[in-house]
Amino acid sequence: MSKDTSRDVRAWLRSLEVFAGPLATFDPAAAPDEPVDLFLSWLTEAVDAELPDPHAMTVSTVDEHGEPWARVLILKNVDVDGWQFAVHADSPKGHQLAVRPSAALTFYWAALGRQVRVRGPVIAEPADRGAADFLARSVPARAEALLGLQSRHLADIAERDRVIDKWRSRVEQEPDLVAEAWTLYTLVPVAIEFWQADKSRVHTRLSYERTAAKAPWQRHLLWP
Ligand SMILES: Cc1cc2nc3c(=O)[nH]c(=O)nc-3n(C[C@H](O)[C@H](O)[C@H](O)COP(=O)(O)O)c2cc1C
């Protein structure tokens, strides 16, 4: 891209609106003691507002060289014990979690002007829980996980379709087949931040922090 074009892009980006939606409101004084309760109420509002993929989140990890990585995953469950996602352990994110079992999650519900960030250690759940999650997946999703090549270089699209077709047939014939490396992970939160946008740009932030899993939560307002 030439420098002239990049100047145009800068102006174009500056012209785009942010926080265009009617936006939600947030009164931190009324926030519950347990952050998962607040998260579930914000998630419920996102679902009720019919936002697309309300349970999609960016999962950030760090590799053995300290390099950051991030990708979008689907939230599988959340309760007082933590936020859960399931992935193939033999994938880049699985390898990163093996060497650095810690992650950050970011949810963004744009139309409501809300962001939630969650950070903490990640534990791999026992194999039977990973298997139960795997068997609840669709046939194509199970086939992709069984072939176990996620994020590897692919020679051509025809090869992808041929191999996936082969695994789909196998899953249809053997519906109890489980990818052993499919793993359910729980992020045990030590820091959770709720961020509410305001059109005035005076945003409201509430953080819950604790020194260790199961320790009591401390609440702090944060400067926007
Ligand atoms: C909305 C959305 C949902 C996704 N859900 C998953 C998922 O549940 N599991 C998964 O392995 N990848 C999922 N992906 C793909 C990941 O973002 C990522 O491309 C893939 O897991 C490879 O990541 P890695 O190379 O860091 O291991 C999803 C992508 C999007 C956009």
Automatic annotation (TrEMBL):
GO terms for biological process: pyridoxine biosynthetic process. GO terms for molecular function: FMN binding; pyridoxamine phosphate oxidase activity. Keywords: Flavoprotein, FMN, Oxidoreductase. Binds 1 FMN per subunit. Transmembrane segments: none annotated. FMN binds at residues 71-76, 93, 115, 150-151, 195, 205. Pfam families: PNP_phzG_C (PF10590), PNPOx_N (PF01243). Its cofactor is FMN. Gene3D superfamilies: Electron Transport, Fmn-binding Protein, Chain A. Belongs to the pyridoxamine 5'-phosphate oxidase family. This is Oxidase.
